[in-house]
What we know:
- This protein is mainly alpha-helical.
- It contains 23 helices and 4 strands.
- The protein has helices spanning 2-18, 27-38, 40-53, 57-81, 88-96, 98-133, 140-157, 163-184, 193-201, 204-214, 234-263, 279-288, 290-324, 343-359, 362-389, 391-394, 407-423, 425-449, 454-465, 469-482, 492-501, 508-518, 528-539; strands at 270-271, 274-275, 489-491, 525-527.
Amino acid sequence: MVGSNIESFMQSVSDDIKTTLKRTIGLAGVVIISLSAMLPGIFVTPTFAAEIMGPGIWLAYLLAASVVLPGALSKSELSSGMPTSGGSYVFLQRTYGPLIGTISGLGLWMSFLLKSAFSLIGFSAYFIVVTEYFDVEMELIWLSMSALVLITIVNLLGVSKVKAVQTPIVVMTLLLLVGLCIASFFTGDFDASIPIDGALDASGWELAEAAAFVFVAYAGVTKVAAIGGEVKSPEKNLPAGILLSLLIATVLYSAIAFLMMATIPGEWWIVDGKVVENPIYEFARVIAGTELGVIAAALSVLTMISMALAGILASSRFLFAMARDNLLPQALEEVNIKYETPHWPILITALAMGLAIFFVPLKDVVKLASGFKIMIFIMINSCVIILRRTSAEHGWNPQYKSPMYPAIQFWGIIAGGILIAFIGSKAFIGGAAAIVAGSATYYLYGKQHAIAQQTPIASFRKQFQSSTPSQHHNRVTAFHAADLGGKNHLTLREFQNALKALGFKYTSDESRCIFHNADLDENGVIDIDEFFDSFNLEQE
């Protein structure tokens, strides 16, 4: 089964590359996108990690990075060989088949929405610092929920071009964090022996548990692979960008964790029996006073909201992508006629995030998100092993190949399994929930609806290419008549209505496959003129 899945997968990848999206993102863009997805981790996780193992947490960040590295190398190879949009879900679905694809898709959806929820909870802790400074009172939980409503509306309206906003925010955040690190050396209480002794005194158990907890801080390192179809020279820029951003994040996280513990005296991460949820504010306040701390808190708010904005966009797209593979109902891949956004996936994701924010403590949110991401990284490492072992039969020969194969992949799998064990029961409960939900979804819906794309697509192309001038005119007229939004675009429902009006007798699932094949940029709409031009070019 795996072999046949890989064979069809390789053919679909070859077809995808022939009709790829416009590639506009260079190496710098890859690094910015990866870093923007990772930075929120350092704003929340240090104090919770310190609660586990004390001031030696810098070593936990290094250990976590060593477990992330195999996944980063493996995903770099997968992205190089399959430079198409979709990321981990596509790799897993097409390597292991629709059942594992459904389970992994739902697991990825949950991990992304949990990380976004964790960003919103962390954002509110920093925002409270700003409001208290200006003597304004606000409830923390309702602040998070208000931010969730705001970013949901923004996503529904289609204002998803967050890269232009994220770039200056990422740059300012990096400058702030580097500046704090440099300034920490000049504080009177600086004592480098505290984090060093803390690392040496911590037990192996505490180190592993802390590393498992902070794993979520690196979870976004491979996020850029999901837009591989838009990266210039992906065989070079994707691996280089992923590995460079991981190196930057590892150095930055470890340095901040080390210097934070060396600068702030005492067990400052616990106040009145509760873990401090705004460590960067405390770091800045001790170094340069309350005013700079408030500025740092304000920048932290911007950073985490922009990450949550992109997070709800990314997590909702997993449901959208699964629906495009006929593994979820058609409603989840239909886009709004006016705004051309997948409104149902966005609303469902926002609702799930709201429940997580309202009912799950921040520490548990981080544990669940870390647990899901470690599981996905384990599976990604296994994909490379399978593809390498079947390369002769299925032509797996990417331009970038992971070094130290297969030892590095086995390290990622074994170390990842150990870290999951240290996260505890919540990771297993979360993983079991994804398996049960994914299996139920596949057997109750996906198995009956997922069909081979080649049959309806080949039939449709043959019928369209053999049209007379009169038939062509009628088809163009019907397609424009179905365009209720008046944008020269057709949503899936509009496309299906046009086919019915023209007398094409395709099932709902078959027409969905035809639509997906025509929707080259995978945004849920097709351009009418480009659609007909593609057939004219083929006939010529």
